[in-house]
Amino acid sequence: MKSFRVDLRSDTVTTPSAAMRRAMADADVGDDWFGDDPTVNRLQERAAEITGKEAALFVPSGTMANQIALRLHFRGTGHLVVAEPLSHVASTEVMSSAVLSGIAFRTVPGDGRGRITAEQVRAALEPDEPYDVEISDLVCLENTSGHAGGTVMDVEDFRAIRKVAEEAGVAVHLDGARIFNASAASGVDVAEYAGEADTLMFCVSKGLGAPIGSLVCGGADQMREGRRVKILFGGAWRQAGVLAAAALIALEEGPGRLHEDHERASRLGAAVAEIVPGSLDPGSVETNMVFADTEPLGMTPLEVTDRLEAQGVGASVVSGKVRMVTHVDISDAGVETAIAAWRSVAAR
Ligand SMILES: Cc1ncc(COP(=O)(O)O)c(C=O)c1O
């Protein structure tokens, strides 16, 4: 088992707070297959309220949440989903949706920061007459982008894409695994982003600090069918109220402190940029992620993560770069430790 002094591999590595552990121990529970776990139901109602959607479903992972949503919009095997190639659904999950639902992707290359434009989406949704075999059921957007910089999508760009999709009669799903980070950085309410999507998912297990869980949100009829798909995909997780109790705390206490993670990421990014000139533009750090190019060091990203690891600092390799993610368990001192580790790597 790996153990780090400072674990920046992801914001999924957080451990539950004392308050979460107490709430988990005391949680009222029932069988979620039957829909009678009171804590799960309370969490789902709260998620629907926050996102401004009619209903929500608590599921074990962000992947399952996306896959339920994709399945809800799916109209036929071999149909396409329009998405940016670095997005989680079009990269990590590409085989999940192929296996579970027979869905393929029409990828639209973004600006290097995971963002696509309404004009690109319009072109991607144009029918391929006279053959008419390429049918898109859905546009899937990601905010923030987890593989392309933790980038925030502009709400106006969102609106423009939604308009284009609506004109083409195609729904929009938002992979909002880190939508609360987007909201903290932009000042745009989560409900405003959600208002531009037919369905969305967000994770409580990432920046918000809960140990496990994600929520799919959408219309009441969609979530009724979504509940069936959740069971179909093996997600009927019985007394899940134990986890919903921690998720409720994450949802109330998590969003208000995300700016601290963003400030620490910004400080870390600025320091790495100074230690390794050319590794990153400090202005590219918009939320809780720092992506550093290791070419200026003459090392592969893996060599750098190995050397950081030797000093007790965990980082991961994502999109050909070293990715470091700040979260609730990273303190100011942790950031200083990571900076010192980079200094030592660069000095060799
Ligand atoms: C943007 C995005 N969507 C979806 C997921 C999937 O979440 P999970 O790991 O809970 O399946 C991730 C995971 O990191 C992600 O970054």
The overall pLDDT average reads: 97
- Ranges where pLDDT stays below 50 over 5 or more residues in a row are none
List how many beta strands DSSP finds. Answer: 12
Share of β-strand residues: 5-15%
Number of helices: 13
Output the radius of gyration. 20 Å
Q: N-to-C terminal Cα separation, in Å?
A: 27 Å
Which series of helices and strands comes N to C? EHHEHEHEHEHEHHEEHHHEHEEEH
Shape annotation: globular
Which class of secondary structure composition applies to the elements? alpha/beta
Helix content: 40-55%
Name the hetero compounds present: pyridoxal-5'-phosphate
Oligomer: single chain
Can you lay out the helices and strands and say which pair or pack?
Blueprint: E1 6-7, H1 18-26, H2 38-51, E2 55-59, H3 62-73, E3 80-83, H4 94-101, E4 104-107, H5 118-125, E5 136-142, H6 155-167, E6 171-175, H7 179-186, H8 190-195, E7 199-203, E8 214-218, H9 220-232, H10 241-253, H11 258-275, E9 289-292, H12 301-310, E10 313-314, E11 316-318, E12 321-325, H13 332-347
Parallel strand pairs: 1-10, 3-4, 3-5, 5-6, 6-7
Antiparallel strand pairs: 2-8, 7-8, 9-12, 11-12
Helix pairs in contact: 1-10, 2-10, 3-4, 3-9, 5-6, 11-13
The structure holds pyridoxal-5'-phosphate (PLP).
